[in-house]
Amino acid sequence: MVLFTSAIALSGTALAATVIAVDSGDTLRVREGGQVSTIRLACLDAPELGQGLIGAQAKATLAQLAPVGTAVRVTPLTPHTPLPETKAANGVVTAEVATSASVVNVELVRAGQAFTTLDAQPRCDPLSYAEAENSARFRRMGVWQVEGGSERPWQWRVAAAEAKARAARQRAVEAQQARERQARPPRVNAAPPNPSLLAAGPVTSMPGFQKQCVASGRQRYLEFSQGIAPPPGSFEAVCACISKPKPNETVEVLTERCTNQYLQRFMGRM
Prior knowledge:
2 domains; 5-stranded mixed beta barrel
């Protein structure tokens, strides 16, 4: 779609055109001289469609003020400073649009379906727009139904952009975490347990209490470790603990204490 090269974009005077579509509360498309131009209504900022009902109401009101097929006069206004959180992208003509009955921009503000942005548009008629906005505010129309007015569209756009950025950052974090999980060495499934852990091995050559400690350690390890291969010296660590009993501690209590102590430490590092 060629926009800035159209006669409307190059002219500072009113040009005749026909409305062919209403895209939002402050944007419409017109046909002039065989070319289609996107018009951003000057001197105002209407609620975004993403703001819900108030955005839909603004669009519906604009469609009533300038229905498709309506002959309009389009007067481009070249802004000297950008609109708040400028919506107009390259190729979009900022202009006043008038029908045979009224200036659409002013009437949209009067209906309470847009906020004025006079500071950003020095060429706007401040008296007409201020009077229209004061009338809407006094009658609590549209965006002025709530005290102080609804959320300004430029504020909503900033918040929406920040929310989008936060969501993108969260997705990046989750993707990184997924990659890290995939890079970790896989764990051995709990079933079946490693038969080598049940082998008697050196247990038969140890003194009685050490045999019991190793056997108990192996069995408890199988119960809680989900089949993960124990690190070297696992059972020896249990036995080292058992070799230092507390006063009046039975072999059974000692074995239980040391086995649990080791398992808690090891499982805490998993």
